[in-house]
Input
Amino acid sequence: MPRRRVPAPRRPATLGARAAAALVLVLVIALSSPHVSGKSGNAAGGVAGYVDEADCVVAYRKRDCPYVAEFKHCAIQSPIPARCCLKLAPLVPYTACLQIPKYWALADGVLAPNVTVDRVLQDCVGLAGG
Output
């Protein structure tokens, strides 16, 4: 009698929304910390507390990307759902730019009229902004 092949149990192809949101939370906290150090090409790299404004300009140019529009559309709900917060994941490397008031204001302008940076930090990351 031939042996039957038993398929291996399938693992989910993607993380659950809560697990992915937790991962984004960890990345945002790590990247926005003023104690980040080390050399890298992203906005969080370099000397502790240093933000390369060239990276912030790159981030601002992404304001018209589809994921920003999708986020603004789904962020009308309160609190902002985790799956909606995940739409901003491509911008996580640029969170250090929020240390510069000019880029905080630009981000608020991009998210207006229904969403603010403070609200994103509160609902998506669990941090108070400011």
Q: What stands out?
A: Residues 17-125 form one domain.
